[in-house]
Amino acid sequence: MADRHVNTLDGDVFVVSDESGDIETNPKYPTGLFSFDTRFLSKWILTINGERLHALSNDDLEFYETRFFLAPGEPTHYVDAKISVIRHRLVAGMLTEQLTVLNHDHQGVDLHIRLDAASDFADIFEIKDLKEKQGSISVRTQSGALELRYDRESFSRTTIITPDAPADVDQEGFSFKIHLEADGRWETTINVETLIRGAAGRDLRASLSTHRGESRPQVRQELDTWIEKAPRLVCEDERLETAYWRSLADLAALQRRPLSLTQKLPCAGLPWFMAFFGRDSLFTCLQSLPYIPHTTPPTLRALANVQGSKVDEFRDEEPGKIMHEIRFGETSAFEEQPHSPYYGSADSTPLFLILLDEYRRWSGDDDLVRCLEQEARAAVRWMNDWADPLGSGYIWYETKNSATGLVNQCWKDSWDSISDHGGALAGHPRATCELQGYAYDARLRAARLAREVWDDPEFAAKLETEAASLKERFNRDFWVSEGGYYALALDGDGRQIDSLSSNIGHLLWSGIVDDDKVSDVVEHLLGPRLFSGWGIRTLAVGEGRYNPIGYHVGTVWPFDNSIIAAGLARYGYRQEAARIAESMLDASEFFAGRLPEAFAGYDRSLTKYPVEYPTACSPQAWSSGSILLFLTTLLGLEPHGDHLIVNPVLTPEMGRIELFNISGPWGHQDAFGRGPREQIPTRRPHRRRVFGE
Amino acid sequence: MTSLLVRYLEDLRGDSRRFDTLPGSLTATIRLDIHTTQGVDKWFLLINKGIVQSSKESTHPDLVMCAPQQLFDDFTCGNSRVMPALFRNAMQIEGDLRLLTIFDRILPVRKMRHHGYGRAEEPGNG
């Protein structure tokens, strides 16, 4: 099992350390203090009299606060320690660490407390493959503080470390030489600030009217408000209750204050994806609309603000296209990576339209729809013009940036994700099936907005005609008749990429599946090749590239499963949807309620527990959002004008579920559901293993 | 040599222009501080519901952008983008960052020439 890491975060700033709170570089995992995609601390090691400290325990108090209880020496003899240390870590705009050293002996003691600090100022993209930096690092000690600085041309990042107790400061850290009386204690607080140099040497963020930092009370208050505003869940199912509150707290933790807005936006996941992503934020908002609808308007506005306006092949930007990802580190600044922002996703644009309409259904907010009309129309134009270079009526993708662009621009964006039954990779351009589903749904939703808000029935009719034509064409071109499912993709020659994949579940969610094909699709989704017992695999067993621990070619993704379950419910397969939710809730127990980005696709009968994917992000926004969407699906929540329809279908294990105070155009409404009583099985005869315990 | 951006701003000065790529409800002012060997040449871009006009008359800006003339010209002809320039501190700004992308949309270039920092194509291509 991988080393356990402890995360402390507050959106813009996050720390990943070992269990004692120490930081050492690790090419496999981004440990350190990070802000705006730069590592500001790569070494942070506490010793007492030359000995490393061992973790007795650590308390994950809140996402922004961790307390480590430590003792000098190795675990084999720590019980004899006469000294212990409490390392209280807080992240709120900066890193603050309060050290408390306790002497439990009946006599005084002299101690040399040492804190080694350094930074490699690595960009998040450089972590896995650290190369010699093009700029230079300098270290300066001044007035008891240690300043670490990186300069490359006008690009400059600085770490300033300041303890409040007297210390000997040298180029590599701080030494505190103290005497502790019997049963005495010593404390110091160390602040670590991260500086992104802007105009006149000031921090860039200080120059922006749209950005402001936060204090600890503000972070606390925001979290309290966040939880208070969300609907209150009361249920008999401990799995669901734990996962619900865990997901809400994690989604709060993953909110980041961007440079361009006063409101926060969702980041995709810790630690690799602590950035604003088009696809991830759109899906997360779609999953969480009944619970935290206030995250959607800033997300849509922020995406609209950076909507593509010109052709930029380096960034895969085209007019009207919604961005994929924005990063602020050195490789973006010097355009060694195209993420400033990068537009390499073919699904963000239709998903933007889908969320805009779905938000209106859950909020009744016509103003935002009016405000974003121009951007929405530009998004439609992108689907019709730029996304379809072959003139086939489909969305295609092929990066124009062969050096650093993404080969796959769908949600399965790893290089090997799009292959046929024999395992051969598809030729370019590629049109994956779920993209066509999103495009179909997006057109119908844009048509509704045109008719009901923009007062443009002509445009609405045009969109509806295009959607109908797309559906007909799609059901002909993508259907693998001998297999009874939809091809994963078409290649540029119109050839079917005929592997069986989870993507077909997204088609249900989009509504593009012809009625006479639904039962075949459902049978495949719940069949043994795709359904592992824990969830639906990304790629079916028996496909050429199937690998149960392959990132997009066999693992199980909670996000994927939540969309598929919603799709099953859309076509009336409620029991099947509940079965997927049930298996995911079972899986969540092994992760203390926090569903990771992905886990392995081994059959449940083989492993008895969901095998962790080694480098999965956790928390991951759309995994946290999955629990919320499962709950919506289980309760059958559906806006209908000024009414909220509640039509629950639960499993026997779920018992009674009560969700209070769901807000929308209907005001506030409660929803109740109960699983069939007569079938309640005996559950969990023994306590399950929880990873990390 | 006359600045490309200044020539473009001169065009906009006498001729209010509609930009379909701008949010229809946006009203804002961007001040451009163009640093030249002779000093700072200040221009104002007045944005009013999709209509843009340039001016030399001082008014309260929502965003101030300060950069050397060469960098502004690189933006104008498609050799550089504003966001990475900001990230590497080649340009300084004050105010509402959202207007940076609005400035980008007002520029005349429709297809970028460059392929990353320091890898710009020769003028005339693209």
TrEMBL record, chain A:
UniProt domain Putative glycogen debranching enzyme N-terminal: residue ranges: 10-190
InterPro entries in the record: 6-hairpin_glycosidase_sf, 6hp_glycosidase-like_sf, GDE_N_bis, MGH1-like_GH
Domain (Mannosylglycerate hydrolase MGH1-like glycoside hydrolase): residue spans on this chain: 326-588
Annotated segments matching region Disordered: 672-693
Pfam families the record matches: GDE_N_bis, MGH1-like_GH
Organism superkingdom: Bacteria
Basic residues: compositionally biased ranges: 683-693
Name of the featured protein: Amylo-alpha-1,6-glucosidase
From TrEMBL, chain B:
Species for this entry: Micromonospora andamanensis
Domain of life: Bacteria
Protein name: SCP2 domain-containing protein
SCP2 domain segment(s): 26-107
